[in-house]
Design the sequence.
């Protein structure tokens, strides 16, 4: 590739599709629409301060959290883009209590269900800090042509056919996987295209960043408290003490750790005994990306992608990142609980 050659997301998707002669192109078409919705959301995120789109919309979502205007904007635009692409028969979103059924003829024939957190890290919107979109795609279990059912969504993460995130940061990036490694695309605003910038992202086996909301320290399980102490101790052979970095946007914290090496932890706490993050549209897609990068993602005792989901908005503890760091925290959890 010469220095002037640029591969756009859409070109890349088509190149990948060409490697599978029997592929029908429907997943490619769907990913293309994800890219388009991401560009629209990015445009609004970037001009948020200018057009009075910041602030609360005055509603609460199904989790009882205040919705921000941009959350609603992102939700609506992803839903519209995915509906119009015709490959998705139903969508589940953090912002909607039940899944959204697309019931026209075209969508009923869609092979996929799509799960998303349209704008994650929403407490960071008003203060100009990185936020993200997370998505997960499954083949439906119900028959094509029938109405989608809850069972289409309640599949373990191992069944994901694609997953990814968009990070609206100092630049905007889309990272996705279809199980053949992770690819990252950076949005070039001058041409309005996501351009391939990161091929086969691998995360270091060892890292020296730990990311956890230490304000909750007193409520953490004993094993997590002990692991934090371990991270802070001095030991030249393991490059400790580690650095503490916590943005409070899952996508931004995970993306940094993915590239640099580190661990992200959101454990169960006394006040949130099942953890805070959602299994289906936050943890599973992030876990797919992390595993494709040779990292690990667990809920403590179990690989997160093997957890059998029981409800759409299910929460889970989450430990994800560099393999050796996840192994280490698990050692502490097994000894101290
Ligand atoms: P949200 O979906 O309401 O934005 O919440 C999810 C976010 C994650 O992005 C982040 O990792 C976590 O909540 C931060 O929570 P806390 O403020 O409790 O540390
Ligand atoms: Mg979220």
Sequence:
């Amino acid at each position: 590739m010469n220095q002037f050659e640029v591969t756009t997301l859409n070109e890349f998707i088509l190149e990948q599709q060409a490697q599978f002669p029997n592929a029908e192109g429907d997943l490619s078409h769907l990913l293309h629409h994800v890219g388009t919705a991401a560009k629209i959301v990015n445009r609004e995120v970037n001009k948020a301060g200018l057009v009075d789109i910041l602030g609360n919309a005055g509603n609460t979502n199904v989790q009882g959290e205040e919705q921000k205007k941009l959350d609603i904007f992102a939700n609506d635009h992803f839903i519209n883009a995915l509906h119009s692409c015709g490959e998705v028969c139903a969508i589940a979103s953090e912002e909607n209590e039940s899944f959204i059924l697309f019931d026209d003829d075209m969508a009923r024939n869609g092979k996929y269900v799509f799960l998303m957190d349209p704008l994650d890290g929403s407490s960071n919107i008003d203060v100009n800090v990185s936020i993200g979109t997370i998505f997960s795609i499954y083949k439906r279990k119900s028959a094509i042509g029938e109405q989608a059912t809850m069972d289409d969504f309640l599949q373990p993460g191992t069944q994901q056919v694609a997953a990814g995130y968009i990070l609206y940061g100092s630049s905007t990036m889309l990272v996705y996987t279809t199980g053949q490694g992770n690819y990252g695309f950076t949005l070039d605003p001058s041409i309005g295209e996501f351009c391939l910038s990161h091929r086969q992202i691998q995360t270091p086996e060892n890292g020296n960043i730990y990311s956890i909301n230490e304000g909750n320290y007193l409520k953490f399980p004993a094993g997590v408290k002990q692991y934090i102490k371990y991270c802070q101790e001095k030991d030249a052979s393991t490059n400790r003490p580690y650095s503490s970095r916590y943005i409070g946007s899952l996508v931004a914290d995970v993306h940094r750790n993915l590239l640099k090496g580190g661990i992200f932890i959101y454990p169960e706490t006394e006040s949130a005994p099942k953890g805070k993050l959602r299994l289906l549209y936050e943890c599973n897609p992030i876990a797919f990306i992390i595993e494709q990068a040779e990292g690990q993602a667990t809920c403590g005792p179990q690989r997160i992608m093997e957890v059998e989901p029981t409800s759409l908005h299910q929460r889970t503890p989450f430990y994800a990142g560099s393999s050796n760091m996840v192994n280490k925290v698990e050692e502490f959890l097994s000894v101290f609980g």
Remarks:
- The mean pLDDT is 93.
- Residues 9-199 form a domain with the Fructose-1,6-Bisphosphatase; Chain A, domain 1 fold (CATH 3.30.540.10).
- Residues 65, 94, 117, 120-122, 213, 248-250, 266, 276 surround AHM (ligand 1) (CB under 6 Å).
